[in-house]
Amino acid sequence: MSNSPELKPRVVPLKIASAEKKCRHVFVRDLIVDASIGIHDHEKNGPQRVRINLDLSVVDDYFHDADNVDDVVCYEEVVNETKAIINQGHIFLVETLAEQIAERVLRMPKTLSVRVRIEKLDVLKDACSVGIEIERTR
User: Are 29 and 12 contacting, i.e. CB atoms less than 8 angstroms apart?
Assistant: First the structure.
C-alpha cells in the first residue's frame, strides 16, 4: 500500500468573484465530451475524449428577489455553446477550440473574462492529460 495520495486531475478554482469589483464567478468543471480534434491521421478517424473547464468573470448585478434566469449567465447555455462548437466538425488544434469557446462565451452580455482549459485525455500513455489554458477578456 502506497503512502502517496491518489492522483486525480483537478483544477483549482480561481478567485474571480469579488464584491468590491461586483463580479461573480460562473464555472463549468470537468465537462468531458467526445471531440474530433487533432493533427495526426489516427485523430482524424474518430472522436477522442477531451475535458473542458471554464471560469467566467461576470457582472454581478443580479437582484436575488427576481429569481430569473434571464438576469444571469446560465452555465447550461455555456455548455450548450461549447458543445455546438465541437459538433461543427473536425478541429486540428486544441488552441483553436479554446479560442472559439472563449470568443463565443465573451459574446454573452454579462461576461467580462473567461479562462478556458482543454485537456486531451487519451493522448500520452504516461500522462493523465495534455492540453492548454487561455484567458481572454472583453
Answer: no
